[in-house]
Amino acid sequence: MASSAPDLICVSHLRWNFVYQRPQHLMSRAARTRRVYYLEEPVFEGGHELELRRDPCGVTVCVPHLEEGTDPETARRQVARLLEDLIEREGLRDYALWIYSPMDLPIIEALEPVATVYDAMDELANFRFAPPELREREQELFRRADLVFTGGYRLWEAKRTRHPSVHPFPSSVDVPHFAQAREGLPEPADQARIPRPRLGFFGVLDERFDPELIRTVAAHRPEWQFVLIGPVVKISEDDLPKGPNLHYLGMKPYAELPAYLAHWDVALMPFARNEATEFISPTKTPEYLAAGVPVVSTDIFDVVREYGSLGLVRIATDADSFEAQIESALTSDNSDRRARADAYLSTLSWDQTWARMEALIQAAEHRQTLQHDGAADD
């Protein structure tokens, strides 16, 4: 990596080795031209130190270790000190700041970045167990940020009047990675025993997932096999539907997902319609399509707007229509829909998304530099 671009510190509420999604896609690309430090939430297992590890993509993952029992606000103050020590130790004089959660505002309050980006990936205030002070802190983050990016158009519409520079960047896709599913990849061993037809989902199983929808359709169509891949978060496993045609395979590495998709007949997005899903723009939508698998989704705003309106994804509004759309996907010739999806996906890539973001960040950095130099001349 050879560049004069300022370094980048990303403060994230998501762990680097959790589900591979927006932060990993963007920060791995940022690391091609910048030194990138990805600060995770702390782990509470003794000590008071910042563990650093270098990911193969070039990102330095920073994991704060704090004493067990430290309360959240004290933890943020301690992480702030660890981060300030890191900045001094690594010689980070000119750096941009990238933040995902307003709750982490205390961590960055004392920092002086050349530019601050708030990447509003989701409407976190609507998620289960969201702290009541999150909205107030978001307002303060709007005041500090030079740029606000949103994870979809619905979220952009909700935030565009709250900051002078809000830009929608819906989920993108690494087409070559997921297109491997079309190349006859070997069947994963834990899926090979499952009969066909297979209806698959990968992602986090949390309050956005609609267990009743899957329970109803699975009970009505026992010959259909539901393959569910991903960690269970913030909900009880007891809340998930059970049955002989429901198969929970756990979390899988990003690299292995195409091999599972290669042997699905339909890919599913069984999202509930609730506060947590009002603003989502699921990354899996273009990933499923890149794999060449027909997709059935509930009527999530951004999915309908970007994919349903173009006839690329079949949209359902309840259990009956979800079942009917799966039946259609299983029995129809999907070749025309797949060709149109491929044409649409040819305009998308995380590389392009990052390039557009990078241009905005560089412009903000340039403005800040000019202002700083002007102030120094006064």
UniProtKB/TrEMBL annotation:
Transmembrane segments: none annotated. Coiled coil: none annotated. GO terms for molecular function: transferase activity. It holds the Pfam family Glyco_trans_1_4. Keywords: Transferase. This is Glycosyltransferase involved in cell wall biosynthesis.
